[in-house]
Amino acid sequence: MSYHNHCVISFLNESLSHLQQRMTGEGIGPPGEETEMGNTHCSPWQPTHEPTVGESKQPSTNEVKKAQEMHLNGVEMYYRGELQKQQLEHEKTRLENIKLQQRMENMGVHYRKFQEECKDYEKIKRDYMDLQKSMKDMDAHYKEELSKAHNECKSLQTKYADLKQRMATKICKDLESSGVGFEDLSDPCNESRLREMYDSMRIKDWPKLKRRFANMDVKERQQLYHNIVQMLKRLFDMANNDVQHSKEDLKKLFLPDQQQANEGKILQNLTAATHSLQVAFSLRSDTYYQDIVRPLIGEGCPEEERMMIIELAASFFKLMCLMLLHNPPMTPDWQETERPDLWTEERMFPPIIVVIKLVNDEDWSNPGDQ
Known about the structure:
The protein is mainly α and 370 residues long. Helix content is 66%, strand content 2%. It contains 7 helices and 2 strands; from the N terminus they run H-H-H-H-H-H-H-E-E. The chain has helices at residues 3-23, 61-175, 191-211, 218-254, 264-283, 286-293, 303-324, and strands at residues 330-332, 352-354.
């Protein structure tokens, strides 16, 4: 039995007890209706009129039963209504609790999903950090490998260039010529004549000029010789640039299409044109070459010695143009002038070497790069 039903039954028992007391003459009315004098007020469940003089104050049995029935019906209706209200409230509270429980369950589901997503996020974050660290390690590793490969490539290039230069110099010095078995004696620019011109400059012209400076101070004379060597190198660079520009013009004229570079007739015509250009350089007057080198000669020495230096420089410039246009090209071995143990006043003009074509070299390579 519920607590509510127990309260209703207790109230009904109290009401019956009060009615029985009223019937025995005790002045007790319905619950909660007592007065200070012990008398009761009128209630909805009892008669409201006072008995007359002729009537008996003791109610009849029917009246009592009727009053009891009316009282019980009223109490039943009242507490039935209260019970319905409480049931409605209880049902409302139950439904609210169900809704609240559902909301809590939904929140729990969402919270568990959120926890799982957080775990997934942490896992993804750790994977990302690991991947980032791995990428950094790989980047550092490949950078180190690339640097090693680059340094090794530079070392190999240096060794190859050194070997190439040493082999070309050794071959040229061993052969003392380009190895051509015969020459056209009518050619004013054949290799033998170019060598004779260079030897004449080295053996005759240079000693004649050197005697003009015999009375100079040793340090001043050494400085003058050094300046002359630097001037000769500069004249060689100028001649090399002029020759290369001329060769480029011939290539544009004879080889407009680079795919035809290996055709025999075109190469023969190009070689013949180069030789014609060499002859043209040889036929130019000495004044032409002297005007080119004059700006390079300072005015710090007497005019006669200065004019001798200009003539020597002009002859050297002309001879360098002819040697560079020769096939194969000829060039002084400037490395000898850069070695103090080999350089002397008598070796002001270094020996001539022939630029031999090595593997993968171009026929029209620049001798100044050797």
